[in-house]
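Support request from a user on the community tier.

User writes: "When I paste my structure tokens into the form, the page sometimes reloads and wipes my input. The last time it worked, I copied everything first. Here is what I submitted, just in case something in the input itself triggers the reload:"
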């Protein structure tokens, strides 16, 4: 049985939509889902760095640039390490939802993108 972890914010409509899609797929494809409410169970800097590797993106691709906190912390134009530090300190800055399964991960923007890591042949 495959396992998938979703970094979920229940207050976010996109995150709720992504979780619903994932739960539907899990029933059909025998996938165990772990829901991690990442605002309460904040990912470490290392976990975020590992996620970036799985996503094959830089920190700037995972951070919520339209979030008021991004602006108040004056993060525009800072280096990738500073963005990574900011996400580790302020989980609210992490784009959501995110699903991780093994060495694959996907950001749910749009929510259907979460399903891309569960392709045939895996």
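"...and here is what came back when it finally went through:"
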């Amino acid at each position: 049985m495959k396992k998938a972890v979703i970094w979920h914010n229940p207050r976010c409509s996109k995150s709720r939509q992504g979780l619903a899609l994932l739960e539907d797929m899990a029933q059909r494809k025998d996938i165990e889902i772990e829901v991690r409410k990442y605002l309460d169970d904040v990912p470490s800097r290392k976990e975020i760095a590992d996620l970036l590797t799985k996503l094959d993106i830089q920190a700037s691709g995972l951070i919520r640039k339209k979030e008021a906190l991004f602006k108040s912390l004056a993060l525009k134009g800072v280096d990738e390490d500073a963005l990574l530090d900011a996400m580790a300190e302020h989980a609210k800055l992490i784009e959501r939802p995110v699903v991780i399964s093994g060495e694959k991960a996907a950001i749910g923007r749009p929510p259907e993108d979460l399903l891309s890591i569960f392709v045939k042949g895996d």
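Agent notes: The reload is a front-end session timeout and is unrelated to the input. The chain has two domains: 1-38+96-122, 44-94. Residues 1-38+96-122 form one domain. Escalated to web team.
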